[in-house]
Amino acid sequence: MEAELVALATSGATTLITLMISDAWARAKERLAGILGRPGNEDDVLGELEASRADLVDALTRGDGVRAAAIEAEWRARLLRMLLEVPGSADALRNLPAPPTGTVYNHISGSIRSGVVVQAGRIEGSTFYAPPDTTQGRSCQGEQGGMRSQIP
């Protein structure tokens, strides 16, 4: 049984850390505070979660993988203590919200600061217009007089 609790604490800590750096954090943190806290101290736990998140984001921004791993280890130990001391906490931990999959992180660098960036999971049947290309003496006129590219 103890090996199962260690595995659950490890999985829970990994999920917690992943949620901290995802867009799902805003929705998940209140629920996590309820799971990790005891009645009446949810706000304290929420503050600890936010502090850990800020520390984690700072560590990842600086490329400090050792500190990020230490933060995960701290939560793993805390979750294991909770599992050993609080009856019913295993079910709550098993039902943590799953971190989002397929998250896209964009990093735009360089000296060009103009243009259109389109980020989407799926684009279908869209038509994009651009100004006519006059640099090569030819253009493909669309409905608006500009270049037209259509994605089927």
Class of secondary structure makeup: mainly alpha
What percent strand? 5-15%
The tally of strands reads: 2
Task: Provide a count of the helices.
Answer: 5
Shape: elongated
Biggest beta sheet attributes: 2 strands, antiparallel
Quaternary class: single chain
Radius of gyration, in Å, reads 24 Å
Spatial strand arrangement across the major sheet: 1-2
* SSE order, one letter for each helix or strand: HHHHHEE
In short:
With 152 residues, the protein is mainly alpha-helical. It has helices spanning 2-20, 25-36, 42-62, 65-85, 89-94; strands at 127-130, 147-150. The relative contact order is 0.13.
Write a concise keyword list for the protein shown above.
single chain; 5 helices; 152 residues; two-stranded antiparallel sheet; disordered C terminus; mainly alpha
Describe the structure.
There is one protein chain. Helix content is 52%, strand content 5%. The protein is mainly α. It has a two-stranded antiparallel sheet with strand order 1-2. The longest helix is centred in the middle third of the chain and has 21 residues, at 42-62. The protein is elongated. The termini are far apart.
Helix and strand arrangement:
Layout: H1 2-20, H2 25-36, H3 42-62, H4 65-85, H5 89-94, E1 127-130, E2 147-150
Antiparallel strand pairs: 1-2
